[in-house]
Structure formats: C-alpha cells, structure tokens
Model the fold of this input.
Amino acid sequence: MTVPQAYRPAQIWLHWIVVLGVILQIAIHEPIVRVLAARDAGTAADASDVTLAWVHVSIGSVIMLAVIARLILRWRHGAPAHAPGMSETQARLASAMHSALYGLLLGMVVTGMLTWNGIAPLGSVHFAINIALFFAALAHAAAAVYNQVVRKDVTLSRMTPRLRG
Done:
C-alpha cells in the first residue's frame, strides 16, 4: 500500500466527532454516575438523570462507531507519514500515542457498556481509563500544537483543513 499524502476527509471528520464526543461525555458524566448509584442502591433515579444517562450512552455509541470507522479507514487507506524532520524517536512516540488513544477510547466504550448493562461493575476501571485518556489527549493536542507552532511543520494542519496552506 502506498502511503497517502493526506488524511481522507472522512478520517478528519471522524477525528473531530470523537473529540467533540469525548468533551460532551466529560460535561455530562455525573447523571449516569447517579443513575448507576441509584440502580446499585435499588432506588429510582431522577428522570432527568436517566435522560442524560441515555444521552451519555448514545454519545459513547457514536464514539465507538467513529473509532471503529477510523480504524477501518486507517487499515484500508493508511495514514500519512509523520511530518518531515521528525526524529525516529518522535515518530515512534507519536505512533505509540495514537495506538494508546485508540486503545483508551475502545477501553472506555467497553467498560462503559459492561457497566451500564450490568454485566460487570467496571465503573472504577472506566473512571481510571477516563483519567488516562484525558492526559493522553492533552499530551496529543499539546504535541500537535507544539509541532505546528514551534517546529512549523504540518502536523496540526493535517487534521484541520483550514490551516492547510
């Protein structure tokens, strides 16, 4: 397979759908925690919490589908090479970070589904993955901004079409 010169538009859209989904999940995570706590206590949850819990579950499903679609597109069409001038160590770290992000996102979805459906009480694992995902995503974003602004390469512009020159 030849290495593509740029990400496909679908890959870019799916990336930003996942980003937006994760941000929304962070913003509305408390209601699902309360619904699960009520379920565990054998009490009724507040109706608005139940509604927002279902929104949380729905967004998690969208994230799962978007991540799977991204992985399929990556497998079928590849991804552009790392930015020019990047050292071998930086390239390996970037690849490891991408793999970690995919793994953490899928781990979040799986632990969330198992917990929500009462199959396994993995809420604490889900939360731990959440913390790891937060810091991995923060490092990923910081590296992209650093490469774009300091190194002046095309790292960030590959996922933000308006920055393409």
